[in-house]
Amino acid sequence: MEDWIWTTLVRALAFGTPILLAGLGEIYAERSGVVNLGVEGMMAVGALAAFAVAQSSGNPYLGLAAAVLVGALIALPFAVASITLRANQYVAGLALTMLGLGLSGLLGKPYEGAPLAHPLPETGFVVAALVLAAALWFFLRHTFAGLVLRSAGENPETVDAMGINVYAVRYGAVVFGGAMAGLAGAFLSLAYRPSWADGITSGLGWIAVALAIFAAWHPLKAVGAALLFGALYHLSYRLQAVVSPEFLKAMPYLFVVVVLSLSALRRGPSGAPEALGIPYVRGERR
Questions:
Q1: Are 117 and 63 in contact (CB under 8 A)?
Q2: Which of 17, 97, 197, 200 is deepest in the core (most CB within 10 A)?
């Protein structure tokens, strides 16, 4: 029994790592007031960039850097559309997901089925994700820059009155979220299953969006939420002999639906940032 519990915990950490990495990026974007539903697409592009560069160069760390850079770059068009052009953030995010999945599927065809020559260990990603969660919590709660970021999502007019550019703050948060999604994708193609396959993200980006809500936009609570989602993923494989495999595979996604449904009831200090999803117009009061 103890071995089963320990195995479940270890695998939950591995399954939960990409969800946690992408979820932390989404938490920062949403804390600034921007909802980015393009996490799945950014993860897919990051996974492909990591594998392609690592395979071509023989250096997985170059692949890691490429994933972070590409994830940040592909988040820029979304930032322009949703922040500068004030397009509907939900529609722009869905478009980013479709772009990322389509682009990675098309450009990744030459790499299909090839194993990675020099994979990275899962442990390094797991430790990095936990350290990042703690560091990002400290930044958000105990630094002036973190206060500005949170204020941009709660009351952007106040940030503007302080002489700080709200658009720049939100751009930075969205690009950072893209970089974290790219890092999450790199974990999948460089460590978890060191290869490339179309659909490698398997809906993990959507779970990362739900994780941000489930964790109440708190980086440390996101660790526990990622462990829970990771355990659900692991159990969906371990319990197939007892429970319907179709139900078990759907279990993490059913949980996401429940979380998103309940999120509508949470607003204000204990819920979503007040300005979440609302485009900011300088000089215009809400």
A1: no
A2: 17
SS (H, E, C) the chain: CHHHHHHHHHHHHHHHHHHHHHHHHHHHHHHCCCCCCCHHHHHHHHHHHHHHHHHHHCCHHHHHHHHHHHHHHHHHHHHHHHHHCCCCHHHHHHHHHHHHHHHHHHHCHHHECCECCCCCCHHHHHHHHHHHHHHHHHHHHHCHHHHHHHHHHHCHHHHHHCCCCHHHHHHHHHHHHHHHHHHHHHHHHHHHCCEECCCCCCCHHHHHHHHHHHCCCCHHHHHHHHHHHHHHHHHHHHCCCCCCHHHHHHHHHHHHHHHHHHHCCCEHHHCECCCCCCCCCCCCCC
Give 120-151 pLDDT, tens digit per residue: 999 999 999 999 999 999 999 999 999 999 99
Residue 234 has pLDDT above 60, yes or no: yes
Q: Give yes or no for a contact between 93 and 195, defined as CB atoms under 8 angstroms apart.
A: no
**Quick check: 268 pLDDT over 50?**
no
pLDDT score of 282 more than 50: yes
